[in-house]
Design goal:
Elements: H1 25-40, E1 45-47, E2 57-62, E3 65-77, E4 81-86, E5 96-101, E6 103-109, E7 115-121, H2 122-135, H3 146-164
Antiparallel strand pairs: 1-2, 2-3, 3-6, 4-5, 6-7
The chain binds zinc ion (ZN).
Amino acid sequence: MANEIRTFGDPVLKSRATPVKDFDESLKRLSEDMFRIMRENEGVGLAANQIGRLKRIFVASLDDEDYAIVNPKLEERSEATEKDVEGCLSVPGIGVEVERPAAVTVTGQDPEGNPVRVAAEGRLARIFQHEIDHLDGVLFLDRTDRGSRKRAMREWRERLLNESTPASA
Ligand code: ZN
């Protein structure tokens, strides 16, 4: 099956997604598709941009808990920050250290339109911030320092080069 996930270089990843107004069947289907694609690719989060849809919705899954948040907003963020290595399904194989607030509260709606509010810390807080960044057209590579970004770009180019080289032997 063709990979449904848009990868680095695709302009949709640099685009801002627009707020969801209609909480209809197609939105429910979109969130189901996103959960499926996230799981098939063994991800912990996926934003709509990553499958080419510019709607403000992301899904995430951690410790057997599923989240589908529409029109998410970072309501609160802790002053304390944490550094950890992040990856992204749109930049497969690349990991960089990103510093982010250690705890956040995210508000928004579920795919049925009911209000949601989730206080998250640690890994979940990191995932939420990473996905909301996607909806604003921001990649984790934009959140790291120059050196790490350069290194990641070099690795990425090498990866593409290797993939396009026909296997010998
Ligand atoms: Zn990502």
